[in-house]
Amino acid sequence: MRHYGVKEVMELTGVSRDMLIDYEKRGLLHPLRTGEVANDRRLYRDEDIDELGWIVALRAYDFSLGDIGRILGDEDADIHSILEEQIDVLRRKETHVRNLILFAKFIDITDTELYTGLLQGPTDIDAFADTARASETYRIGIERLQSATDEDIDRMVEELSQIVHDLVTLGEADGFRGVEQQIDRYLTWWDENIAPMERLGYLGFWAIFEDDPVLPALAEGIGDELTSATIQMSAFYVYMKRLILEAQGRIEEVAKLADTDVIAAIEAARILARNIFGSLLGNSDAALTEGTRELCTSTLGYMRNILEDEELRGYLDPNGTIKLDDGVLARTQSILELMPVEEDAG
User: Fold this and answer.
1) DSSP labels for 198-245?
2) 338-343 long-range CB contacts below 8 Å, 24 or more apart?
């Protein structure tokens, strides 16, 4: 049987002398000793090299040295299952960090002061959601949640568990397409359990999520304290991307008319407003009031902010299907501001 000295092990594995000694002190490695008084050298066998390989591999996957000691000391440990579970943990961490960055961008896009936004969420979005709070669909959704029994809650948790798990463990390779798929699954669940998304729009969804404690509690019970914010943020990005793609032809038309025929541009802008109302309020025939006109102009502002952020634009639209630029959005936004409004009811 061959024995390896410390220097040879360092060359073979890339592990430093200090770490080899530390692993030995912690009981993770058990090298032989020559026993010579003047030169009590450490000698490593092939099995020690194998053991060291496991230590290095497990450390790379973010296991603590204490965990590594327990794993290697358990003859019945299923290393394959343990690694699969740890990879799941690492995916959650990766997604958590990415979502923190995306949430900060979400706050910035919606023109909320960062400190306030990180604590309370986008203030503009919640203010605009007041229009959705006046709808019958919102009322039905809130009442349905308030009347939910313990059995209903248990069923909701069971149905949501895999959806939320898949959302919070999305890897970098899944990209935004993966986010869209999981949000679509979540909103399908919402249709069946809360209220039809088609009649709620994003702002109705936001309002119910903010106003009833059941939904955040369900999400955070399955994921973590960031999960409910991640769902709201991810749904925002999905809705905004789809609204941009749906409306970009109309946006370009309004911008083009703005240079030649302002009256025609305003008429085209009314149609664009209906696109926005349908997506965000679930009611394309919503009245054009001061508040809903501000919603339209702010929505164009959100689009501009998204598309000005090259990193975010590339993440949401890796195939370059969005063709709008800031100039087009700015001209259209100026026309939306000119739309005459109806009197607010009451």
Assistant:
1) HHHHHHHHHHHHHH-SHHHHHHHHHS-TTHHHHHHHHHHHHHHHHHHH
2) 338/262, 338/266, 338/269, 339/266, 339/269, 339/270, 339/273, 339/288, 339/293, 339/296, 340/266, 340/288, 341/288, 341/289, 341/290, 341/292, 341/293, 342/287, 342/288, 342/289, 343/289
Provide the 8-state DSSP code for 3. Answer: -
Residue 329 has which token pair? 């959005």
Whether residue 178 is predicted with pLDDT greater than 50 in this model: the reply is yes
Q: Mean per-residue pLDDT for 40-54?
A: 89
- In angstroms, the Cα distances linking 71 to 19, 57, 66, 101, 222 are 19, 12, 9, 34, 27
Beta-strand runs (E) in the chain? 32-33, 42-43
For residue 4, list its beta bridge partners: 44
pLDDT tens digits, residue range 52-74?
Answer: 999 998 999 999 999 999 998 88
Q: How far are the Cα atoms of 15, 68, 335, 336 from residue 59, in angstroms, in the given order?
A: 12, 8, 58, 57
User: What's this model's pTM, rounded to 2 decimal places?
Assistant: 0.81
DSSP assigned state of 282: S
SS3 content of the chain, % helix, strand, coil (to 5): 75, 0, 25
240 vs 79: CA distance, rounded Å: 43
Which among 28-32, 329-333, 338-342 has the top mean pLDDT? 329-333
Which tokens hold the place of 68? 């590594």
Q: How confident is the model at residue 251 (pLDDT cuts 50, 70, 90)?
A: very high
Rounded CA separation 103/125 (Å): 14
Tokens 């349905």 belong to residue? 144
Tokens 């579970």 — which residue?
A: 85
Q: What is the DSSP letter of 32?
A: E
> 152: which residues sit within 8 A by CB, 6+ positions away?
none
pLDDT tens track for 75-93: 888 888 999 999 888 888 8
